[in-house]
Amino acid sequence: MIIAALVLAGLAALLHVYIFWLESFAWTAPRGRATFGTSQAEAEATKELAYNQGFYNLFLAVVTVVGIALVAGDRDDAGVALVVAGTGSMVAAGLVLLQSSPAKARAALTQLTLPALALLALLVAALV
Question: Fewest C-beta in 10 Å: which of 4, 12, 64, 86?
């Protein structure tokens, strides 16, 4: 079950790297605007905020990937702690988005589903 948890955590990290790219580099491009439903004017007005927010997503991915690498290197305690910190923060961020912008429920669920499944798999692995 730990392998499944790490694969799910890795997929969550990849998703957050993609979100980083969208927010930090493609925010004002047609793909970024279409993804987040913003007009050109809105995207231009908020691009500095999105750039910063994108890096938060990147950092969550990095924490998660370092945790996965530590588990792979038999440093289970530290690795699992980092995977839980990274994926737990991803879930929390998705819940904040859901609470603050109910119209963005699809984006919030996309953001939090993989890390939530990773956490669930880690919990099952710990109990077995």
Answer: 4
